[in-house]
Amino acid sequence: MHGIRGKQLYSLIFYGVIFAVAAVGALAYMGVREIRHDAAVVAVENSARGLSGAVTVLLNAVRSSNQEISQGLLKSLEPAALRKEFSAVLKDHQNLEAVMVSDGQGLRYLLTRRFGGMVEAVPDELHTVLSWTLLKDGKADDKPFLGWKMNLAQVDGVLSDEFSHLEPGQVNWRGANRFHHVNVAWITASSLVDSGSGQHLMISFAFPAEAILSQLSGAERGGAERIFLYWGDGRAMPVSGLGADVAPELSGKALTPDELPDPVVRKAVSGLAALEDGTPEKPFPFTLDGEIWWTWAMPLSIFGDTLSLGVAVPRKNVLNTLTSDSFLQAGAVVLILMAFGVLFVLHRSRGRIESLGLRREAATTEDDILALIQAGEGGRLEFKQTLRFNLKSGKNGKEIEHACLKTVSAFLNSEGGTLLVGVADDGSVTGFDEDNFDSDDKALLHFNNLVDRHIGTEFSRYIDSRIIEVGDKRVLSVHCIPAPAPAILDAAKGEEFYVRSGPASRCLTLKQFHEWLGRHQ
Question: What is the pTM of this model?
């Protein structure tokens, strides 16, 4: 008849509060976790980008030492002119190991710091043979110099491919060991310059990886506690002084994860190597010894070898007070205490809440009355044909009023129920016209006065009485909810205490009343 009845209201509110608290807690947790995630992603990305700026500073220092190169120009490809320009650059920058010039065909010129001096390599016009020259104090050595084994066709292919993918203003970082035949990791930074005739050339500056790591070690880390260079094939070189350092014999070399001594870098590199393309779009977390770290490898390569700048940031470095574990724990404690407080108040008010729920069972329409009649008399429903008129004697009788009142008091002392006056025992709607009330208001007033005199005015709040028309008949519907205190009926023979027993109202003895009190206190 009505959606929520009786004790269902209390259960609904009680478990609703638990669900609401759980939902708020879950939403808060998810929200904080999302904030943590976003904060970690931003912090790690900013750290990597800030450190990449330090690498760019190293390259800019080299380029700015030559006026033409700093302007993006290289006007002459004559070996003598290039030797003069680049010798000065190498002399000014001891952390620079080599300079290469190339174009769409491949290598055009190479000058590198080797063998106690400088070595120059220039290909012939057909790009089949390299001409090697060992320079001592800026002059060619008298002794023949054969250089080192270099597959010129392969080098030309790599450089021309890189040249074709570069755009003006871009810098591409990549491994350079294949060009220079060295046992330690070298890295080149390549960019385009103008030849002065409208054609582009590519200049590549080669640095030992350790020079770049040294530059990174002195840069602002922005929360990063591990920094490393990462190659797409799964090798890495960590910055020394942050975590466990590599053994001297491995210094300057790109290492596999198993060779990395620092567990944080090893775990970060292993995670990167496990990715399908080796370079994540966004930072990702990993756990080591119960601590959560975030890592990312920011690509430095535009094309070719996938060289990236990797960082690892502990979560503690990116959390603020509002997202810290201690704040979450304190918030959880407060939420639990609030929940217990609300549940305690609900428990104390259980009777009132259940009463509110039971009030919703009160019939208010003709259909409600017919539905009750269809259900038939029982522990929570009783029919009476009149309120005061004795059909057998043909006059009003106190015994009829007493029968109605004992039913009401029994409902109050049990689980509540509804008394329908104007319905015969067989369920037929007769109305209560025999009671001969002047009006419906007079009928309700008479019933309420009976309750006040014989049960008590304090119980009227637990009784809902109204007159409802069913067809052309009037029915007095008296809906009762359980009272918090015993409802004792003041009858002609003395005080009586009734409870429902099946479809009947039973008067308890003193002993039974005492037992009832013990169960309901």
Answer: 0.59
